[in-house]
Q: What sequence folds into this?
């Protein structure tokens, strides 16, 4: 064979055909491998993977949280008790005032004149009384010597008694005039912070009636009270605990209350329960309560919003879980429990307060049960899961 010869067209076409058949074989082999890697038709996927844990079981002191506002223990509207022109003001707006401190003076001259007139009337009637007394004593001597009839003696006695009554009436009128003169000096009825001046000096103010002129207001600050409302269910729970003797009612003992303001992270304000209302509000179905807090630094002000927690129960064992493990089903709260054969069960639970980042479960869950804490959305009641157990205690301590 001549190696240098030029190949013919038939030979070249043959070589191309052989190459094409080799490529087809390789493609068929690759496709066969890919088909072999796919699962067979109708095969079920493995159960979804979830993280499960056993609830934290430990002793706790339970607190129930509420929202409310601070209110003044005493709030007084300072009004005039007599009418007259406002003469002077003796305090700085917005400052603390002491009980009995002078605040306003109403023009005293008309009232001083009334006092002077009443004093003169007392003196005049007293002179008549002295005369009646002398005539009565003279009559007693004359009667003893039978120089005066009994009828004349009775007239002198009646005159003396009438003069005594007139003196008493005049003295009462004098005391009333002196009292009204005292009312021209308006003093603070309590220790607290005063508001602004509502009436300028020189204006006529009215007093002594329901429409008396409002001059300013004063609120007490130390101590201060915190008002809040609890639901009927919470009130019933406290009642049952009181009946069982595990937590006494706040009507009978001053249960502790702790509060914090909007910019505070810790429960720094310590108080005590001082009032529980005698009936539930018909419209809201809530019970009103009040706690008293010392306020020596005057940080707490009436109207200030705060969160408070009330001592809810004594030291007791509790089952606790993270809020992420709780599913809401309308009004019910559910926890996904992994039981035998890793089958999921939706368990209704009754929840309590949040303590140290974990939610107290009052009913519905045992300490030894496994609950889904991660992947709750993949856990369906009645379906199996692939559980991976984790520790809640370790996650809480971190």
A:
């Amino acid at each position: 064979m001549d190696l240098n010869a030029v190949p013919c067209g038939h030979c070249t076409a043959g070589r191309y055909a052989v190459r094409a058949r080799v490529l087809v074989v390789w493609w068929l082999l690759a496709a066969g491998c890919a088909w072999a890697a796919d699962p067979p038709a109708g095969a079920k996927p493995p159960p979804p993977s979830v993280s499960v844990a056993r609830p934290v079981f430990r002793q706790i002191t339970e607190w129930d949280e509420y929202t409310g506002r601070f209110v003044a223990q005493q709030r007084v509207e300072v009004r005039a008790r007599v009418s007259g022109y406002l003469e002077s003001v003796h305090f700085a707006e917005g400052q603390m005032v002491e009980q009995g401190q002078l605040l306003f003076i109403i023009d005293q001259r008309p009232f001083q004149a009334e006092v002077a007139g009443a004093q003169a009337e007392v003196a005049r009637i007293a002179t008549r009384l002295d005369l009646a007394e002398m005539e009565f004593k003279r009559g007693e001597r004359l009667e003893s010597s039978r120089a005066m009839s009994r009828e004349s003696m009775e007239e002198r006695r009646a005159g003396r008694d009438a003069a005594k009554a007139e003196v008493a009436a005049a003295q009462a009128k004098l005391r009333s005039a002196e009292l009204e003169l005292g009312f021209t000096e308006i003093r603070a009825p309590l220790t607290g912070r005063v508001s602004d001046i509502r009436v300028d000096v020189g204006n006529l103010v009215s007093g002594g009636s329901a429409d008396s002129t409002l001059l300013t207001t004063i609120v007490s600050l130390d101590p201060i009270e915190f008002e809040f409302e609890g639901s009927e269910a919470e009130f019933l729970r406290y009642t049952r605990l009181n009946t069982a003797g595990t937590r006494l009612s706040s009507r009978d003992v001053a249960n502790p209350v702790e509060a914090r303001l909007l910019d505070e992270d810790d429960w720094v304000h310590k108080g005590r329960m001082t009032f529980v209302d005698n009936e539930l509000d018909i419209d809201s179905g809530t019970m009103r309560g009040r706690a008293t807090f010392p306020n020596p630094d005057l940080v707490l002000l009436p109207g200030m919003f705060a969160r408070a927690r009330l001592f809810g129960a004594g030291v007791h064992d509790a089952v606790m879980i993270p809020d992420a493990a709780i599913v809401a089903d309308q009004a019910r709260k559910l926890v996904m429990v992994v039981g035998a054969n890793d089958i999921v069960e939706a368990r209704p639970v009754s929840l309590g307060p949040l303590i140290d980042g974990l939610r107290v479960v009052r009913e519905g869950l045992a300490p030894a049960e496994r609950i889904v804490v991660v992947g709750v959305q993949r856990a369906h009641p009645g379906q199996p899961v692939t559980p991976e157990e984790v520790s809640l205690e370790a996650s809480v301590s971190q």
